[in-house]
Amino acid sequence: MNFPPAAPVPAEPEPEPKPRPQPTSLTDLFVSFTLLALQGFGGVLTVVQRELVEKKRWMTREEFIEEWSVAQVMPGPNVINLAVVIGMRYFGFRGAAMAVAGLLAVPLLLIIALALVHAEFAGVPQVAGALRGMGAVAAGLITATGLKLIPALKKHPIGIGLCTVLGVATFICVALLGLPLLGVLLGLGGVSCLLTWRKLAP
Q1: Could you report the per-residue pLDDT of 53-76, keeping only the tens digit for each?
Q2: 114-143 b/e (C-beta count within 10 Å ≥ 16 → b)
Q3: Which pLDDT score, from 0 to 100, does residue 198 have?
Q4: Domain range for 88
């Protein structure tokens, strides 16, 4: 006895990818960078990485490393350069201006107030000791952030081995030999760019 062929089962539609988190407005951008700046005691790199990559997820770790590298090469404060890049990406020139304003407006008022207080109590030994102690904490924060970003180098075109060699060479040139930063950036940075270009070339 012949049975009619079974009707084909319709394929289930693939789920649409979730939209990537991003700032919802210029106000959101301003407030986010203001809160980021207010947390940046002793260095803002740690806070930037945690807020933009881990919490808000506006950037992946790989994107953060790339954008932060560009921000370091450009003249001016690194975090300001990064704010300009992120603001321009989402809202153009207005976004860049709003991100920078968020970084500077409220912290500027606080710095002025703290400068007045510091001028009054800078001679107190306990205050000077506390400020020196914060330097050690800032160094630890920066080191921890660098270690957290190392896994992202596994996806770099030249591989984590060469990335490590270039990183160690940069540390030796800047920290131990005291070579000019611009020369190190042009030299080792140029080598890194050349190796990456050759790796990505068809």
Answers
A1: 888 888 888 888 888 878 877 777
A2: eeeeeeeeeeeeeeeeeeeeeeeebeebee
A3: 82
A4: 20-125
